[in-house]
Amino acid sequence: MLKKIALVAMGGLFATTAMAQSDLFKADDLVKYRQSIYQVMSAQATVLGAMAKGDTEFDAEAVHERALNLGNVSKLLGETYVPATKGVKDSNLLDSAWDDLDGMGEKGKAFGGALQELIAVSGEEGFDKKAAAPAIVKVLKSCKACHDDYRAD
Ligand code: HEC
Fold first, then answer.
1. Are 132 and 52 in contact (CB under 8 A)?
2. Which of 8, 122, 128, 135 is the most buried (most CB within 10 A)?
3. What is the CA radius of gyration of the chain?
4. Ligand 1 within 6 A of 143 CB?
5. Where does the signal peptide begin and end (predicted)?
């Protein structure tokens, strides 16, 4: 019943070549778009985190759904990371990130890997809170690891 197909394309989180479609957006709008994606991710992460901590009732199917949501929205991030957004005032992406795209890409990959694991394990029969908690924490830690290095605040 929980066996859903976990289709998450996490490859190429950060585009290195300009994509024609992202040329359709203004830099300011791309930053709003990016931040909105992160807000959607944050809502999923909040629900997952609360379940891992036991603040809300554990629901295996909901974990799987939230994990899939994270995968679906996070794959849109790549097109918001275009160099034209570098000077946008409201962006909290550190300028230094542009000099270390490989490093930031690694953080993105670590997040993608942790998320893939959560999607896989939460789709298995018998998935329970004991299995969920460490897998969720790993995803949340991967968010923070990137923020620590590449986000201002
Ligand atoms: C590979 C790096 C990276 C990963 C992984 C990452 N973030 Fe972020 N996050 C950023 C950067 C950079 C910004 C700032 C973007 C900007 O302002 O241009 C940001 C911004 C945010 C914001 C603020 C959005 C706003 O309205 O300004 C939230 C909330 C957030 N991230 C949540 C998350 C959550 C939750 C996860 C994990 C599920 C996550 N992020 C994973 C790099 C990352």
1. yes
2. 122
3. 16
4. yes
5. 1-20
What pLDDT tens digit does each residue of the chain (153 aa) get? 333 333 333 444 555 555 568 788 999 999 999 999 999 999 999 999 999 999 999 999 999 999 999 999 999 999 999 999 998 999 999 999 999 999 999 999 999 999 999 999 999 999 999 999 999 999 999 999 999 999 998
Pocket test for ligand 1, best of 10, 28, 118, 151 (most atoms within 8 A of CB): 151
CA of 138 to the centre of ligand 1 (A): 16
DSSP of 97-144: GGG-HHHHHHHHHHHHHHHHHHHHHHTSTT--HHHHHHHHHHHHHHHH
How many angstroms separate the alpha carbon of residue 128 from the centre of ligand 1?
28
